[in-house]
Amino acid sequence: NAGVTQTPKFRVLKTGQSMTLLCAQDMNHEYMYWYRQDPGMGLRLIHYSVGEGTTAKGEVPDGYNVSRLKKQNFLLGLESAAPSQTSVYFCASKSASYYYGYTFGSGTRLTVV
Amino acid sequence: EDQVTQSPEALRLQEGESSSLNCSYTVSGLRGLFWYRQDPGKGPEFLFTLYSAGEEKEKERLKATLTKKESFLHITAPKPEDSATYLCAVQGDTGRRALTFGSGTRLQVQP
Questions:
Q1: Which of A8, A24, B31, B86 could be cross-linked to A98 through a Cys-Cys bond (beta carbons 3.0 to 4.6 Å apart)?
Q2: How open is the CA angle B4-A68-A71, to the nearest 5 degrees?
Q3: Quick one: average pLDDT of B23-27?
Q4: What is the model's pLDDT at position B28?
C-alpha cells in the first residue's frame, strides 16, 4: 500500500546510546518532516526537508540530526540519547502544493532509560 | 509565530449527543487549516482542509467550518467509533511549508 513507512515501531535505548529512525515514502512527495508527540504538547516539528539533499531545523532540533540522501527517505538520528527524548516520533510527507496536507507514518515509540 | 489552541482538551459524549470542537488560531497568511483524526497508537489521519473564511466541508457525521480566527468541528449524532483524538493544524505563508498543530481534543463517545 502507498504511504509512509517508519522503522522501527518500538525501541528502548540506554542513555548515551545512538540510533537512527528511518522514514520511507512511495508517493514521490517533495517535502518530509519529523515530529515528536508528547502528552499534552501536541506534535512538535524537529526537522524537515523540502527536497533531496536539503534539511532544515524545526521547533525542537537540539539533540537530533537528519539526512535526506534520496527523495523517498528521511532519516532521524539521535547521537547520544537522553531520557528527555522519550517520545513518539512521527514522520510525514506532502507534495509541494499548498493544497494538500500531510500523510503520516504510524510512528516510532522510543523509550530512553 | 503560528499558534493553534484547541478546546476542550477532552470531551465525553453519549451516543447521539451532538457537539462541537474548537480550534483557535493565529497565523501569518493562512494557506490552509487542517483537521486530523488520531486513534491510539496510530498516526494522524487526514480529515479536511479549509482554505478561506466561510468555507465548510462534510464527511459522514463530521462538519468543519472556518472563520478568520477559529475553526469548528461539528459532530452530529456521534457513534462510539468516532472516539479518537482530533487534531487541528494550520499552514502559514512561510517558506517552511510545515504545519503547526494544536494539542488536540480527546473525544470519547459512550454507547
A1: B31
A2: 95
A3: 96
A4: 86
* Beta-bridge partner residues of A6: A23
Q: Does B25 touch chain A (CB under 8 A)?
A: no
Say what the pLDDT of residue A27 is.
Answer: 93
Question: Alpha-carbon distance A85 to A32, whole Å?
Answer: 20
Nine-digit cell string for B35: 483537521
- The owner of cell 537540539 is A62
Question: CA quadruple B27, B28, B32, B38: dihedral positive or negative?
Answer: negative
Sorting pLDDT into bands at 50, 70 and 90, what band is B97? Answer: confident
Q: Residues B91, B34: contact at Cβ < 8 Å?
A: yes
Distance (Å, rounded) from C-alpha A61 to C-alpha A84? 13
pLDDT (0 to 100) of residue A1? 61
What is the spatial distance between Cα A36 and Cα A43, in angstroms, rounded to a whole number? 6
Minimum-distance CB partner of A101 among B4, B49, B96? B49
In chain B, the largest separation of any two C-alpha atoms, in whole Å, equals 45
Calculate how close chain B gets to A51, using CA atoms only, in Å.
Answer: 12
In this structure, what are the phi and psi dihedrals at residue B6, rounded to the nearest 5 degrees?
A: -110, 140
Residue B4 reports pLDDT greater than 80: yes
The CA distance from B42 to B84, in Å, is 11
Q: In terms of pLDDT, which residue wins out, B97 or B38?
A: B38
**Mode of pairing for the β-strands spanning B19-26 and B3-7:** antiparallel
Count contacts between A and B (CB, < 8 Å).
62
Residues of chain A with confidence (pLDDT) below 50: none
